TrEMBL record:
This is Release factor glutamine methyltransferase. Residues 111-200 form the Methyltransferase domain. Methylates the class 1 translation termination release factors RF1/PrfA and RF2/PrfB on the glutamine residue of the universally conserved GGQ motif. The keyword S-adenosyl-L-methionine applies. The lineage of its organism: Bacteria, Pseudomonadati, Bacteroidota, Cytophagia, Cytophagales. Substrate binds at N185, P186, P187, Y188. It comes from Algoriphagus aestuariicola.
Length: 280
């Protein structure tokens, strides 16, 4: 028997309400329907027979009901106007990181800049910068071989010439030097805050890209900023994504290491989300 898209969407949304608020559940269903059968919200009054729908749609719905993020289910996530492949080896790109990318683009208009992204994951930061800026030379590094493969695949599929390197920034020095811009969205969530996080993040996203020890919350910022003094050219810039509670601490860290013009930048929600400075 035919059912309208609107009624079918409501039917699926009800099955997700134990895990998600209604609006989020509705958005997830919309994403699922668009991916599997090309139907969007504007098609709400169209009708179809449920038995004609692919079995994979229902299989993916069951995965959603376990709390698995839809980006991992579908294998892709939107970022800065493009779609990036994602796997369980990479963090899911987030809106806050789009704001970091936008800040860098807005503040650096010169052509031919050399850029290094540390902890690249999907490669969403360096790939977006390559595609949006004026003929930059862009590099990305990560300690995870599987993550680097995802980044390389994304660069190939999106037509971005980005060089990638396997490197553990805590114990190794990157091969790329004399860069104009150093950027990183490093792990910054305290291990003690795990209990406050949504279960679908804890159960599915890589912990190594999320958490830092409580006794050293600025570990990655300190190491990257210290090595940045050797990697950056004079007057080169360093950009970090930060936890909203760390703005003052990261700014002071950069100033104590000799960086100048350090400042904290708020995101669109008014939260301290980025910190940048210049090498003197």
């Amino acid at each position: 028997m035919p059912i309208s898209v609107q009624d079918f969407s409501k039917k699926l949304t009800l099955q997700l309400l134990e895990l998600y608020p209604e609006q989020e559940a509705s958005n997830l269903v919309e994403w699922l329907l668009e991916y599997h059968i090309g139907i969007r919200r504007a098609d709400s009054f169209r009708s179809f027979d449920e038995e004609d729908l692919p079995a994979k749609l229902y299989q993916d719905l069951e995965r959603l009901k376990t709390g698995e993020p839809i980006q991992y289910i579908l294998g892709k996530a939107p970022f800065y106007g493009r779609e990036f492949a994602v796997t369980r080896d990479t963090l899911i790109p987030r809106n806050e990181t789009e704001e970091l990318v936008h800040l860098i683009i807005k503040e650096n208009r010169a052509p031919g800049l050399r850029i290094l992204d540390i902890g690249t994951g999907t490669g969403c930061i360096p790939i977006s910068l390559f595609l949006e800026m004026d003929h930059p030379t862009v590099h990305g590094l990560d300690f995870s071989k599987p993550a680097l493969q995802v980044a390389k695949d994304n660069a190939r599929d999106l037509g971005a010439r980005v060089s990638f390197e396997l490197c553990d920034i805590l114990s190794q020095m990157p091969a790329f030097a004399n860069v104009d811009i150093l950027v990183s969205n490093p792990p910054y969530v305290l291990e003690s805050d795990k209990s406050k996080m949504h279960q679908n993040v804890l159960a599915h996203e890589p912990w190594s890209a999320l958490f830092v020890p409580d006794e050293d919350p600025l570990l990655f910022y300190r190491v990257i900023a210290e090595k940045g003094k050797q990697l950056l050219v004079p007057h080169g810039k360093i950009y970090f994504e930060i936890h909203e509670s760390q703005g003052r601490a990261v700014k002071e860290l950069l100033e104590n290491l000799g960086y100048t013009n350090a400042r904290v930048v708020q995101d669109l929600n008014g939260k301290n989300r980025m910190c940048m400075a210049m090498l003197s």
